[in-house]
């Protein structure tokens, strides 16, 4: 990855590349819909992926921005986030309440992960080896394993209620888990997850 190269996506349906040495964009990729996120490959300075409101993940080689290497199709709603879990694999999140795993050399989905709820808010996404974690709009953390489509485990945050909320059911609250990350370790593997929700509660969880 080139430390001087930046990428941005916008509602103008463009991905723009920038150099920290220049004021103006150095290149542009034309998308077909609003661009929701952009990520560089961790193993190549020439490759990036971006998620779009067209329900797809687009994978490009920056040496040829006229057309994508691959367009990954399968989500039913906008792809709100995409990230590389390795140099060869991408996981995407959508407001269709699914995560999907892709290989950059294959046009089909390797696995779909279902269980969490994600229809309007960003609920976080983090990977660690073969494990993928995300939040949910039912105020819970969800953990998936790359080889299984079903939820591996969940952790529900306690609901914070004020006096005005005393008659509301727990499921009627609008709290959601908004951020997740794995504790960084030198060898890259970790069994500790940190998650935060929309009420400002942070949990440190150890997988045993």
TrEMBL record:
Recorded hits in InterPro entries, A to Z, give: COP1, WD40/YVTN_repeat-like_dom_sf, WD40_repeat_CS, WD40_repeat_dom_sf, WD40_rpt
Name-wise, this protein is Uncharacterized protein
Traced from the root, the source organism's taxonomic lineage reads: Eukaryota, Metazoa, Chordata, Craniata, Vertebrata
**Keywords assigned by UniProt, alphabetized:** Repeat, WD repeat
Organism, per UniProt? Answer: Ovis ammon polii
Q: What biological-process terms (Gene Ontology) are attached?
A: proteasome-mediated ubiquitin-dependent protein catabolic process
Q: Enumerate the Gene3D superfamilies for this protein.
A: YVTN repeat-like/Quinoprotein amine dehydrogenase
Q: Sorted alphabetically, which Pfam families does this protein's record hold?
A: WD40
The WD repeat boundaries are 1-28, 72-104
What's a Gene Ontology MF term here? ubiquitin protein ligase activity
Instruction: Name the SMART domains for this protein.
Output: WD40 (SM00320)
């Amino acid at each position: 990855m080139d430390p001087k190269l930046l990428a941005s996506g916008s509602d103008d349906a463009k991905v723009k590349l920038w150099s920290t040495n220049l004021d103006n964009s150095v290149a542009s990729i034309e998308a077909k819909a609003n661009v929701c996120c952009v990520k560089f490959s961790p193993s190549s300075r020439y490759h990036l992926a971006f998620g779009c409101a067209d329900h797809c993940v687009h994978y490009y080689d920056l040496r040829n921005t006229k057309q994508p290497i691959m367009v990954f199709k399968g989500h039913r709603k906008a792809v709100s986030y995409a990230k590389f879990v390795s140099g060869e694999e991408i996981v995407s999140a959508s407001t269709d309440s699914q995560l999907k795993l892709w290989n950059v050399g294959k046009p089909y989905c390797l696995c779909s992960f279902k269980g969490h709820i994600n229809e309007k808010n960003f609920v976080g996404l983090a990977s660690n080896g073969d494990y993928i974690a995300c939040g949910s709009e039912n105020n819970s953390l969800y953990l998936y394993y790359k080889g299984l489509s079903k939820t591996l485990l969940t952790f529900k945050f306690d609901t914070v209620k004020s006096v005005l909320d005393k008659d509301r059911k727990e499921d009627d609250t609008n709290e959601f888990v908004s951020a997740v990350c794995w504790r960084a370790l030198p060898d890259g593997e970790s069994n500790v997850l940190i998650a935060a929700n929309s009420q400002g509660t942070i949990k440190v969880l150890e997988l045993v």
